[in-house]
Structure formats: C-alpha cells, structure tokens
Amino acid sequence: MTLSDEEINRLFRIRRTVMQMLKDRGYFVGDFEIDMTKEQFKDKYGENMKREDLVINKAKRNDSSDQIYVFFPEEPKVGVKTMKTYSQRMKAENVYKAILVVQQSLTPFAKSSINEISSKFQLDVFQVKLIALMILKNKIVAVDFCLASCIFVVLPKDSS
C-alpha cells in the first residue's frame, strides 16, 4: 500500500525531529541524517514504507555501549504484545533505553507493562502528534513531549 504524500511528509518530519533530539541527548547522529531531504527519505524507505522500517539504533558519542532504540509501532494503540517484542529485542541486544513513537497511545495493559519493565529498561513514550519541529528565530528546536512522565522539554540545536 502506497502512503499518501501527507503521511510520508509527516513521517519524514518526525524522523528528522527524533534524530535531532537524539543528537541533542548526546547520541552519535550524523548531520546527513538530520539534513536528509524528503526525496532522500523516500529513496531510502520507499513509498510503501512501514513505520517499523524507521527503527533507529544509536550509541552515545562518548560510550558506544550506551545505546538507545527508537521504535515506531504500526498499530495506533500499542499493546502488551508489541511491548514484549521490543523488550525482548532490547534484552537480546543489551540495549536498555528506548523511545516509542506511538500514533495514539498505549493500551492500559501496555502502560502497566511499562511499570513492570522499568526496573530493567528506560522507556520514553512520545505521541506522534506531539512531536513537532519548530523554527524559532531561525533556530531549529526539537519540542519533546513525553507521555510517560508528562515532561515538556525544549532542546535547542547546537549552534556550533
């Protein structure tokens, strides 16, 4: 199924914003990943892309063993099965941090599973419509809304 141009554009902007957020958090993200054009994005992922194709794995700039996953679940409301799949993958690869970019929300059971796995994994949940890229005074800032802890953080782009 081919995605609409509007949906491709939305996924492109979300991925770029997440990449900037990761860079601002100290993860190794190349400028080419943030500066990727929409056409390059479409060439890389295709017009028939699935959200799960956008999974990101990055390591900290100063510690390659400190890694994070960014998952883009397909289902609008993420359930326990998906949470279990992600946590098993993370455990198998010794990655203990993740960001879930969800379309709508988590099911109540999935929310309770986050509480159970929080002793082993650090997991942030972000809702797609709350991730935005804003241009303020010619500076790009990532606006970061975390559903899990209701934190609003503005992370300015490194001006160097």
CATH-level-4 superfamily name: RNA polymerase, Rpb5, N-terminal domain
Number of strands: 9
Secondary structure tally, helices: 5
Strand content: 25-35%
Structure class: alpha/beta
Question: Largest sheet at a glance?
Answer: 4 strands, mixed
Describe what you observe in this structure.
- The structure is a single chain.
- The chain is α/β, with parallel strands linked by helices and about 160 residues long.
- The protein has a single domain, classed as Dna-directed Rna Polymerases I, Ii, And Iii 27 Kd Polypeptide, Chain: A, domain 1 (3-Layer(aba) Sandwich), CATH 3.40.1340.
- Helix content is about 35%, strand content about 30%.
- It contains five helices and nine strands.
- A four-stranded mixed beta sheet has the order 1-2-4-6, with no helix packed on it. The protein has a three-stranded antiparallel beta sheet with strand order 7-8-9, with helices on one face.
- A hairpin with a 2-residue loop joins strand 7 and strand 8.
- Helix 4 runs parallel beside helix 5.
- The longest helix has 20 residues.
- The chain is globular and about 40 Å long.
- The C terminus is likely disordered.
